[in-house]
């Protein structure tokens, strides 16, 4: 006979998915003014407008490497509203003028076609050089995406130009990773095939989700296809998909995901997949669609030219999917044994749930990361394994780089969801003496349209959470001895 307490365990587990009072108060103090402003803007009368009027907004420095920068912005018709508090698109040209002095912007780059969803790439930049730039459309300077709720900066690596109403803004290119380039790996997660509404945010009441416009392709499919194409275009040799491949674990949605990912290459050779909490189902469709053939039903280790890739199933447990992630005792023991056997081998670990969630705009619940004791066990294992250099996680739908205090040689990188703003993936460029992490948005026109539309998730507050509060949350370089890794055959 069960005791009364055990009879209530399912209900208690469900309650644990909700944020605690302190988390609610902390986030509420930051979010309430912005939510009120958003609600006020939504009920304002739309003023008259002229087709030649233009506003250039949402400027972002998305990607920054040692020799290139990708800059995006949006042009709209002021005074109009698409129903989500966003101006209707104004299709026009776009250019970025830039230089090494704010008073001498003597170089320019532009797009090949008129659009409202601008993406300009600056190339042939010098490593370690400070540049100043201004993005323009029809002589109107673009203004930055505001990240004031998180004290962030969307447009540069310094505060230069912030508050100016159009720039110029500034960034300094990093030095390249040391040594010879060996291979590149695309990191992605949260494709959510089968989802129809983005931004149904648990724990935050009364936030309307955002759906696709009538007549357009389902956004999880178009974003996933655009991701695969962009990853190949950017030179990815491998792709790692870190869970929540589907919205609900159905065989149909997982099958569609398999067909899309097969466009990158062969499963188990060119790309690897792990399960997320959304992928669980009674018929175990995930493991049928993506058979592991590895050490366990959902976890594995692969040696690819000296680089060890470990995939973890971070929801190997019973539950409602909203509680903390868990590996299970068998998988945890296997993982610890892997690192003990070869602690110095260059190793990249990926799994759906993060080990820790810090500096979140929204309330942090237990369900946002791996169960605390298991997360601590993983970090302890990393501390004794100097070969581990990167832990890739999804689930939080944001770009966030965290250094693990007890294992400072490991970068813990949360990657934004593939399915919605900002969309895309993070490219790991592995060199013999280190590596770079760079976030790329999908360049497909339809993907850019959806990315812009879905920034209205959470009443327009989503960029504060998802983009990354700094350029270095989505673009970074670290030194690490990876000389034991060989370039993959035929891909050098």
From TrEMBL:
<dbReference type="Pfam" id="PF16656">
    <property type="entry name" value="Pur_ac_phosph_N"/>
</dbReference>
<feature type="domain" description="Purple acid phosphatase N-terminal">
    <location>
        <begin position="56"/>
        <end position="139"/>
    </location>
</feature>
<dbReference type="InterPro" id="IPR015914">
    <property type="entry name" value="PAPs_N"/>
</dbReference>
<keyword id="KW-0732">Signal</keyword>
<protein>
    <recommendedName>
        <fullName>Metallophosphoesterase</fullName>
    </recommendedName>
</protein>
<dbReference type="InterPro" id="IPR004843">
    <property type="entry name" value="Calcineurin-like_PHP"/>
</dbReference>
<dbReference type="InterPro" id="IPR051918">
    <property type="entry name" value="STPP_CPPED1"/>
</dbReference>
<feature type="domain" description="Calcineurin-like phosphoesterase">
    <location>
        <begin position="184"/>
        <end position="398"/>
    </location>
</feature>
<dbReference type="InterPro" id="IPR008963">
    <property type="entry name" value="Purple_acid_Pase-like_N"/>
</dbReference>
<dbReference type="InterPro" id="IPR029052">
    <property type="entry name" value="Metallo-depent_PP-like"/>
</dbReference>
<dbReference type="Pfam" id="PF00149">
    <property type="entry name" value="Metallophos"/>
</dbReference>
């Amino acid at each position: 006979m069960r005791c009364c307490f055990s009879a209530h365990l399912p209900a208690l587990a469900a309650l644990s998915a909700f944020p605690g009072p302190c988390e609610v108060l902390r986030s509420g103090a930051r979010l309430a003014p912005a939510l009120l402003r958003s609600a006020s803007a939504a009920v304002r009368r739309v003023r008259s407008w002229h087709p030649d009027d233009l506003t250039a907004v949402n400027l972002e420095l998305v990607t920054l490497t040692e020799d290139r920068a990708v800059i995006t912005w949006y042009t709209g018709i002021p005074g109009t509203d698409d129903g989500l508090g966003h101006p209707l698109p104004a299709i026009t040209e776009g250019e970025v003028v830039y230089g090494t002095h704010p008073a001498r912007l003597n170089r320019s780059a532009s797009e090949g076609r008129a659009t409202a969803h601008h993406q300009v790439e600056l190339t042939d930049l010098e490593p370690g050089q400070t540049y100043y730039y201004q993005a323009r459309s029809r002589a109107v300077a673009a203004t930055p995406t505001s990240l004031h709720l998180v004290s962030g900066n969307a447009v540069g690596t310094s505060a230069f130009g912030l508050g100016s109403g159009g720039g110029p803004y500034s960034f300094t290119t990093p030095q390249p990773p040391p040594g010879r380039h060996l291979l590149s790996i695309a990191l992605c997660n949260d494709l959510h095939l089968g989802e129809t509404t983005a931004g149904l945010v648990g724990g935050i009441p009364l936030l309307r989700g955002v759906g696709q416009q009538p007549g357009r392709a389902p956004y999880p499919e178009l974003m996933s296809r655009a991701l695969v194409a962009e990853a190949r275009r950017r030179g990815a040799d491998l792709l790692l998909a870190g869970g929540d491949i589907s919205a609900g674990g159905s065989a149909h949605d997982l099958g569609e995901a398999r067909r899309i990912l097969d466009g990158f290459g062969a499963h188990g050779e060119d790309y690897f997949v792990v399960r997320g909490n959304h992928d669980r189902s009674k018929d175990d469709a995930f493991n049928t669609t993506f058979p592991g053939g590895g050490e366990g039903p959902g976890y594995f280790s692969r040696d690819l030219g000296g680089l060890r890739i470990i995939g973890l199933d971070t929801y190997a447990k019973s539950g409602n999917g909203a509680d903390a992630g868990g590996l299970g005792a068998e998988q945890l023991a296997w993982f610890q044994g892997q690192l003990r056997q070869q602690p110095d081998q260059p190793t990249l670990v990926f799994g759906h749930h993060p080990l820790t969630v810090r500096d979140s705009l929204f309330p942090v619940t237990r369900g946002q990361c791996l169960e605390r004791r298991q997360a601590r066990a993983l970090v302890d294992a990393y501390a004794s394994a100097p070969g581990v250099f990167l832990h890739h996680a999804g689930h939080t739908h944001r770009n966030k780089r965290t250094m693990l205090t007890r294992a400072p040689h490991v970068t813990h990188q949360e990657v934004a969801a593939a399915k919605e703003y900002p969309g895309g993936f993070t490219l790991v460029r592995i060199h013999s003496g280190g590596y770079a992490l760079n976030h790329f948005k999908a360049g497909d026109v339809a993907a850019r349209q959806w990315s812009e539309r879905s920034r209205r998730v959470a009443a327009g507050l989503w960029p504060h959470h998802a983009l990354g509060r700094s350029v270095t949350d989505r673009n970074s370089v670290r030194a690490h001895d990876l000389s034991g890794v060989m370039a993959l055959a035929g891909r050098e």
